[in-house]
Amino acid sequence: MIGTEFIARFERFCPQSLAEVGDPVGLHIGTLDKPVKKVLITLDVRPEVVSGAIFQKIDLIVAKHPPIFSPVSRLTDDNPQTKMYNDLIRHNIAVYAAHTNLDIVENGLNDWFCEALGVTVDNFLAPTAEVPYGKMNFDLPEKPESLLTALNRLNIFIDQQEGRQEIIFPRADLTEIEELFQTLQIKILAQSSFIKEFGLGRVGHLEQTVTLENFAKKVKKTFDVKDLRLIAENPQKMVEKVAICGGSGQKFYHDALKQNADVYITGDVYYHTGHDMLADHMPVIDPGHYIESFCKEKLADLFNTWKTQENWDVEFIVSQVNTNPFTII
Fold first, then answer.
1. For residue 265, what is the domain's CATH number?
2. Does residue 202 contact residue 256 with C-beta atoms inside 8 Å?
3. 239 with 260: CB under 8 angstroms?
């Protein structure tokens, strides 16, 4: 498998264009124009992660957090951070990051959080983008394997609608899809266009109301954290509507208020912002930023599905290095 082939498939699922403005997603180090046999999946790119990657002869690291957030003025070995960059270059290890685009995309990190917590998603938390999309109804051929394979590579899936087949797709793919249907001699029955909204975080509901305290305990158990912080006037308050934004999402708590969420889950809440949340009667569960490591196994499952579909000769490895900078004692 060539690196560009794998990343093209990944970006069909998680386009860079969905990332927030200024977010440094994409390729950070090395080249994708090379054969890739081993891919390491990690939350953070830290020196200990890179040491393990070198030992395991990794060709490509896929990280949730970009390794370079600020400009680098010198690449010297007397600084652990820049030595890490040098080590990656010396060993020809490419580094690719999917950050806020993985948070925003449908069936991405925040949806995975909701699934784990038993939250049925109703909406996103804060709008980020409006993208032109299309809808197409058509007759499915008797032998649909070629169509299904081609659409799968575009991250487009067929849905049944009143006996007809339907796909929803970015309008940017329209020409490619029309050429595909023409090649396979598939009759298009109807087409339409619409604007699809994307956003950070999710808002949804629980199947049954529970106390805030018990729900916080569920969050703690689900994400296997030793402790979490609860901002609440009344831990016995009943909750049903849940807002969540992985990572550092304290600035979006007003969006949770606007959507009448009973509780908001996010990390890295500042002390004074906690006071503001109390004053606004917004209960908040802060399980920390590191719960985003949840994405590693989910990405591995996704990548291995593609490996089977595309018959890739590649090994996907989940980093076992704990990159949480905080130790609870």
1. 3.40.1390.30
2. no
3. no
Q: Tally DSSP H helices, then E strands, for the chain.
A: 11, 13
Asked if residue 324 is part of any domain, the answer here is no
Same domain? For 28 and 66 the reply is yes
pTM equals: 0.94
Judge if 83 and 8 occupy the same domain: yes
Q: 32 with 172, same domain?
A: no
pLDDT tens-digit readout, 210-249:
999 999 999 999 999 999 999 999 999 999 999 999 999 9
d(CA 20, CA 36): 29
Rounded Cα distance, 297 and 61, in Å:
14
- Domain end, chosen from 198, 227, 258, is at 198
- Check if the beta carbon of residue 60 is closer than 8 Å to that of residue 94: yes
- C-alpha to C-alpha distance for 55 and 53, rounded to whole angstroms: 5
219 φ, ψ (degrees, to nearest 5): -60, -45
| Within a domain: 16 | yes
Bridge partners, residue 42, by sequence: 63
